[in-house]
């Protein structure tokens, strides 16, 4: 069995090497790993570092000539992936790759087609940060659940795991963070078996490089309506 770790990257020079080393260090026993990093036209030196690390660490790297957004980077990464299972990993240090085994477990055991991590379920550690961000995340999850009839606790989470069969049937249209509600609507409509696993979260501040903003929240609302009511 093979796992593809798809990492969208944009201006993550300070954390990139550390997150790649962390992913490579994860012990998954008999599961082979491939890393597919997609540089979304970084401007801080990340592009040059990725070119260097591509050979040094033996990872796949795709490059965008124009900045398009996380969803576009994931679309490119999914196409380049060859694994039986695909997991999304952000290039910052907010999410811990050591949690891969429990995220993969429902799929490996044949119980799930899709697994979501959840920052709001379970007893794992969380950095205490923005109140209104947590309110926004929970509101978007609630709104999404109302249309999908799922009972997710964290629709906007980075950690999403898919079987290759599910990914092969999906067309990602959103270029930015609208990917999250889009993909949730689509896997729900496909009738996928979806599991949720509690994860830890070491969120960062805007001064530390956090990118998602209030405009993305409004876009997410539109995407929930669009992909559940308009584009079916």
Automatic annotation (TrEMBL):
Domain Glycosyltransferase 2-like: from-to ranges: 4-169
InterPro entries: Glyco_trans_2-like, Glycosyltransferase_2, Nucleotide-diphossugar_trans
Keywords linked to the UniProt accession: Transferase
Domain of life: Bacteria
Pfam families (alphabetical): Glycos_transf_2
Entry keyword annotation includes RNA-binding: no
GO molecular function, a single term: transferase activity
Full protein name: Glycosyl transferase family 2
Species this chain originates from: Desulfatibacillum aliphaticivorans
